[in-house]
Amino acid sequence: MKRLLPLIALAVGLISAAPAPDLATRTRAVLAKTSGTIQIPGLRHPVTVLRDRWGVPHIFAETQDDLFLAQGFVAAQDRLWQLEIWRRTGEGRLAEIAGPEAVERDRFARLLRYRGDLAAEYASYAPDAKRILEAFVRGVNAAIAASRDRLPIEFQLAGVRPEPWTPEVCLNRLAAFGMTINSSQEVLRAKLGTDLGWQLADELMPAEPPRPLQAQPRRPRRGRREDPEPPPVDERSAPLPGGRERQQQLGGGRYPVGHRPAAPGE
């Protein structure tokens, strides 16, 4: 036994002195699985996810519920840390992990939080908006559960664990607030066009992307005829870029591994 003690001590010393994995190695070790077959609770039919050369996922599902569940799962696979920061930012809980510097931002987010009738809020989007969000959130939560033992490197470095989502998380007012940053410029541009003429307003404050400014339909006033309706917007969709390179099969718990891919649907 006395002869073994120095060898044991040497082995312990060598293990302790072994270099820790570098950041890149640790990061790659916890990357999400993006090929093969994954079993996801809640899917009713197999879903196929094809990733093009840029890693962009294209999802093929047989039902709307499966489509949005898969979208939530894939989004969390690729962006779980971003989703966590987005949720905390919208809920006014960023200071919990970022420190006192984020308190004022959190305060503003809580002032913007929606506190009205949730049923009316969902209905204002679409008749099936709540169902879509519920399916999406189930997918996000499935990805969180699948990664609990191998969290992305950002969570490991920050000492944070992702929290489950609810459909209400998606009703984030702060995200939409960012679209109003240039509202004062838009009002000024409209005032210039009304007072000085649209050609001069276009020279003083050109639009981005460049396009000629013109008078817009105004809200009808009492005793005046309504302005004509604006021309319809030409919405032409461009084809998806890139070839299909990696395939990811998502299956529900009652489907065996290697089930045939679903035919392209929704």
Model description:
45% of the residues lie in helices and 8% in strands. By secondary structure, the chain is of the alpha+beta class. The protein has a domain at 26-181 and 244-251: Orthogonal Bundle (Penicillin Amidohydrolase, domain 1). It has a four-stranded mixed β-sheet, covered by helices on one side. Strand 2 and strand 3 form a beta hairpin. The radius of gyration is 26 Å and the shape is globular. 19% of the residues are buried. Residues 1-18, 233-245 and 253-266 have low confidence and may be disordered.
List the helices and strands and how they pair.
Elements: H1 4-17, H2 23-29, E1 36-39, E2 47-52, E3 57-60, H3 64-91, H4 95-98, H5 103-112, H6 118-125, H7 129-146, H8 153-158, H9 173-177, H10 183-196, H11 198-204, E4 244-251
Parallel strand pairs: 1-4
Antiparallel strand pairs: 2-3, 2-4
Helix pairs in contact: 3-7, 10-11
Strand arrangement across the biggest beta sheet: 1-4-2-3
The name of the CATH architecture of the domain at 26-181 and 244-251 is: Orthogonal Bundle
- Note the quaternary state here: single chain
In CATH, the topology of the domain at 26-181 and 244-251 is named Penicillin Amidohydrolase, domain 1
Which secondary-structure class do the elements indicate? alpha+beta
**Unreliably modeled segments:** 1-18, 233-245, 253-266
Count of DSSP strands = 4
Name given to the CATH homologous superfamily of the domain at 26-181 and 244-251 = Penicillin Amidohydrolase, domain 1
Please bin the fraction of helical residues: 40-55%
Number of helical stretches of at least 4 residues: 11
Helix-strand string: HHEEEHHHHHHHHHE
CATH class wording of the domain at 26-181 and 244-251: Mainly Alpha
